[in-house]
Design a protein that fits this description.
This protein is an alpha/beta fold. The chain contains two helices and six strands, in the order βαββαβββ.
Length: about 130
């Protein structure tokens, strides 16, 4: 926890430094949400080969981030995290060419109460 999924348009592949963005995002999450540590953050990136936005006008790109937290955070905390994350996304996609319109969005949700996890290192589970 938290689990983060970043879906991004293939046209952003060379614009977004994914590892740097994830490190910055993990630090931001730890600063913004009580109980979140950098070590607890997990981010996956998913390149989307085809995206259609509105009337399919060329030069459009989408990046969407889903941020799933353990339940119990207030709406204010989720909103603060969402806004700060969106600003970070904007910073990390600022190098997109002027010919590309980047649609960025963030969704912060609760993990289901049935969420469980297992971490194992060298045969010893924790």
């Amino acid at each position: 926890m938290p689990h983060i999924l970043v879906s991004y348009d293939t046209s952003l592949h060379d614009v977004l430094d994914r590892r740097r963005f994830a490190r910055d995002l993990h630090a931001l999450a730890a600063q913004t949400v009580d109980g979140v540590t950098v070590e607890s953050c997990k981010t996956r990136f998913q390149r989307v080969e085809e995206t259609v936005i509105a009337d399919d006008e060329p030069g459009q790109a989408l990046i969407h981030l889903e941020f799933a937290l353990l339940p119990g955070r207030t709406a204010q905390v989720k909103t603060a995290l969402s806004r700060a994350t969106l600003e970070l996304l904007r910073q990390h996609t600022a190098a997109a060419p002027d010919t590309l319109v980047v649609h960025a969005s963030v969704d912060v949700t609760d993990l289901d109460a049935a969420y469980t996890k297992h971490v194992e290192r060298g045969g010893i589970g924790t």
